[in-house]
Amino acid sequence: MYPIVYVNKEHLLENVRSVTALCATQNIEVTGVTKVFAGDPEIARIYVEGGIRRLGDSRVENLKQLQGLDAEKWLIRPPMIDEIEALVAYADASLNSELETIQAINDAALKAEKVHNVILMVDLGDIREGFIDHDELVSVAIETEKMRGVHLYGIGVNLTCFSFVQSDKEKMSVLSELAEVISNKIGRKLDIVSGGNSATLDLMLKDGIPGEVTNLRLGESLLFGKERAHFTFLPDTHQDVFTLACQIVEVKEKPSVPWGEIGVDSYGNSPTFIDRGIRKKAICAIGKQDFDVETSTAIDQDLIVLGASSDHLMLDVTDCEKAYKVGDIIEFQLGYFSTMRAYTSKYVTKKYF
């Protein structure tokens, strides 16, 4: 049943191989982020086939689905205290910023007779997760090194996610210097220095990443072939891995502007409309619950996306060459958030080719 997301596995595999090869020229390994597609093993398997040895997700439930794949599993957000037991069971590593949480992981790992890898996060300006106080970071690193149930795997940073602060040479140098300080304190070199996400690729391509940075956590660049800082497409990649097909349920001539007193939407905003006169409009059986209008692009460039409610998508098809009718299919190329929402929705069918 529609709506359907079609996944081009061949193009995804080519993306993975192109991006990982690009990173390898800078001696950087990739952790493939799987949260966009809700940890679907069908897609994660393509990551592994393309040469990725580490998979990262922000939910332990998704990592549980990936247990059959030969790759290291990372939880890429600080774990909740309530999920520590599951974390130790299904994740090999996690990103952390609280000593209390690391101690809880240590206790659970000892009980399970395991050793869990810990990556300490540094906040270098995005004001999301991580240590701002560098002395505290070093102190927690020393304490973590003493624990038997956890292994101090490395340190990392996240940028361009909350405040959209960009990665630059100075920030990567600070990260590298902190890694060196910690290595000297514990008497060994850290295994991992993770320099961020797809937004760091632009800096990497400009030779702006110090050699101490050994890892990037990538999702958008693998799936959509673009770096996140300036949204430029990477060489030898495809942007058509995910295609959404939805079905028209109504086609009618209607005014461009509504009539009556206009209220506010669910966010408290009052919508505005452009008066184009009477237009031919189509409604598709899909809405904001299932995909993101702003990060989707209609394949038929002549149609106009008017907007969506939770389960209706409104289109202006007046200028389209095709005479759309009820039952016809409209296709969209999906971007990051649209794919994420489609994969989270149980109402969207997923098909692979």
Automatic annotation (TrEMBL):
Q: Which InterPro entries match?
A: Ala_racemase, Ala_racemase_N, PLP-binding_barrel
Q: Which UniProt keywords apply?
A: Isomerase, Pyridoxal phosphate
Where would I find the Alanine racemase N-terminal domain in this sequence? 7-222
User: Which cofactors, by name?
Assistant: pyridoxal 5'-phosphate
Q: Does the keyword Isomerase apply?
A: yes
Q: Return the protein name.
A: Alanine/ornithine racemase family PLP-dependent enzyme
> What organism, scientifically named, is this protein from?
Sporosarcina quadrami
Q: What is the lineage of its organism?
A: Bacteria, Bacillati, Bacillota, Bacilli, Bacillales
